[in-house]
Amino acid sequence: MDRSPFEDYRRQFQPPVPAALAADHVTFKIGDPTESCEDQEQVKQFFPVTYGLPVLDMEIAEAPATPPAPIKMGVIFSGGQAPGGHNVLSGLYDKLHKINPENQLIGFIGGPSGLLDNKYVVIDADFIKPYRNMGGFDAICSGRTKIHTEEQFAASTATARLHQLNALAVIGGDDSNTNACLLAERFKADGLDTVVVGVPKTIDRDLMSPVGIDTSFGFDSATKVYASLIGNIETDCLSAKKYWHFVRLMGRSASHITLECALQCRPNICLVGEEVQAKGQSMEQVCQSMVDIIKARHQKGMNYGVALIPEGIIEFIPEFGVLIKELANIIGPAYDNGIIMTPEQVLPKLSEASQKVFAFVPPQFQLQLCTEPDSHGNPQVSKIETEKLLIAIIEQVLEADEELTSTKFFNTQSHFFGYEGRCVPPSNFDATYCYGLGQVAAILGVAQKTGYMACLRNVANHVSEWVPCGLPLTAMMNVEVRKNEAKPVIKKIMTDLSGRPFALFCSKREEWAQTDCYVNPGPIQYYDGEGPLRAVADRPTISLEEEA
Ligand code: FBP
After folding, report:
1. Atom of ligand 1 nearest to the CA of 312
2. In the sheet where 244-249 sits, what is the strand order?
3. Which of 71, 357, 423, 455 has its CA 20 to 30 A from that of 172?
4. Of the candidates 505, 468, 541, the residue with the CA atom closest to the CA atom of residue 61
5. Does residue 1 register a pLDDT over 70?
6. Which residue, judged by its Cα, is nearest atom 7 of ligand 1?
7. Which residue's CA is the closest to the ligand 1 atom numbered 20?
8. Ligand 1 nearest-atom number relative to CA 252
9. What is the distance in A from the centroid of ligand 1 to the CA of 23?
10. Does the C-beta of 82 come closer than 6 Å to ligand 1?
11. How confident is the model at residue 333, as a pLDDT?
């Protein structure tokens, strides 16, 4: 594959590691037994083997009396791409090789389906070399197949047995790591010696834990890409002074990405889904709050601005939340029977209140609400062009405003930033974080620890202070109803409205609305030498800095 000069340069980056990972041998400092974050009794029933395990902190140790026997480890990418995934692979490979050059690593191709179908590739030094510090998951590719049927669990066991796998690393988000834990249990029940460890991946940052995961990998690089683009738009806005830019940002449900971009770029408006939900704001109220800012700026002759909108916002607006739940019960089962319903077919099946909401939505958005549901049967809110929906509603509100003689001042541009941030070459932070996470996963695999998430704590600090550890997957779980069944799942971590990043935003947003406080963070810097640019290149996200 041809590589650019940048890629050749960046491949040389050698991520630093904390002392415990640089050491030849580690031991585990065993913490107290853990409990799941909620629904302890129920979660316990689902995980007889892995429930209640202690947190394992890694510490430098002397060489063991008997060196560990060689192992064979498998690895899977699961779910959406996130910058740094290839460095998890290189960290895994390097550590396994360092512990014992006889250790083997194989990558299952295309996500969990690669495990089910036994499609794999051997990951060795030559294989991994071109992917070091590169974005994407293309070395072994990813997929969204969920392992949930009896046949799928049996197929996973068969593959693990065929390869005589000692360990399997699942690099994924909350659902994928829930699956990892279920696999850990299943392998034990089937009498296999294959341990399963997770690695916390997702640009969305909704996979965190106060006892082990400061952030998921990919968030740092993705938000740097989005913030750079928003900064450029702000500069354009300030130069032309003629458009309101409505920018929708990826992140499925949680607003972490949008909030981080707001902290970096200081836009005029930023919606936070969790706040909209907490205040129970209707669509009318959300739009009115935006109109108030647009009008106030108009009165000052400022007919331009930038508004950030999290892609999951619509679910948090109460009447739309109800509509989406009702739609899930209509389009989900129909889709299972191979039918994609039209808005006309859906409308009469809704409650009276939801019919009104649905009818209020312009036709192209009705269609978006009815397209192929996600794997839980829910409408894919990430596919709804909310930025355009908000523009359409705001135009109507302005038209009806008797204080205004004309609405010609409201000219808009809409944007969606998502995929362009997910496969960027990882920032210094993500390249380093992921390389370390891969090493932690290798250590857990060699030590035969099952049901653990590979973690590095304290990552807002210098890498020399990062603490490698294993966090029991069950400690992050609660029970939720999925397709009418109670299921144990890793709890999504939403924006904390009492947290410091949100408080910082609240203390500034009025000023950002009324004046132009735009900040252009510039593109990701990949510099790894000495000097002031290194601080720019190494800076973690503002969210992480604030929470530290
Ligand atoms: P993961 O949770 O699997 O990491 O995926 C995150 C994400 O990028 C969301 O932000 C986005 O809504 C979704 O994936 C898009 O999914 P797809 O890649 O299937 O279009």
Report:
1. 12
2. 269-270, 305-310, 244-249, 412-417
3. 71
4. 468
5. no
6. 80
7. 80
8. 12
9. 36
10. yes
11. 86
Q: Which is nearest to 173 in space by CA: 115, 233, 219, 227?
A: 219
Cα–Cα distance measured from residue 547 to residue 501, given in angstroms and rounded to the nearest whole number: 7
Strand, helix or coil for residue 169? strand
Residue keyed to tokens 């290839």: 86
Q: Residue for token digits 């650019």?
A: 4
218 CB near ligand 1 (under 6 Å)? no
With a 6 A CB cut-off, is 184 part of the ligand 1 pocket?
Answer: no
In 34-191 the beta strands, taken as DSSP E runs, fall at: 54-60, 72-77, 104-108, 120-122, 167-172
Pocket test for ligand 1, best of 78, 199, 202, 423 (most atoms within 8 A of CB): 202
Query: Which own/partner pairs from 354-363 qualify as long-range (CB within 8 Å, at least 24 positions apart)?
Result: 354/319, 354/322, 354/323, 354/326, 357/283, 357/319, 357/320, 357/322, 357/323, 358/323, 360/283, 361/389, 362/389, 362/392
For residues 514 and 268, what is the distance between their CA atoms, to the nearest angstrom? 7
302 strand-pairing partners: none
Q: Please indicate whether residue 252, judged by its CB atom, sits closer than 6 Å to ligand 1.
A: yes
Residues in the chain, total: 548
Per-residue H/E/C for 488-519: EEECCCCCCCCCHHHHHHHHHHHHHHHCCCCC
User: What is the average pLDDT value for the chain, to the nearest integer?
Assistant: 95
**Residue 173 vs residues 32, 109, 120, 256: alpha-carbon distances, Å:** 25, 18, 21, 15
Q: How much distance in Å is there from the Cα of 204 to the middle of ligand 1? A: 8
The set of catalytic residues is: 204
Instruction: Output the pTM of the full model.
Output: 0.96
Span from the CA of 252 to the centroid of ligand 1 (angstroms):
7
Nearest to 336 by CA among 302, 303, 368, 377: 377
As a whole number of angstroms, the distance between CA 86 and CA 396 comes to: 47
**Cβ partners under 8 Å of residue 67, min gap 6:** 100
Does 57 contact ligand 1 (Cβ within 6 A)? no
Cα(248) to centroid(ligand 1), Å: 14
What digits encode the pLDDT tens for the residues 298-319?
999 999 999 999 999 999 999 9
Q: How far apart are CA 312 and CA 172, in angstroms?
A: 20
80 Cα to the center of ligand 1, angstroms: 5
pLDDT digits (tens, 9 = 90+) for 153-184: 999 999 999 999 999 999 999 999 999 999 99
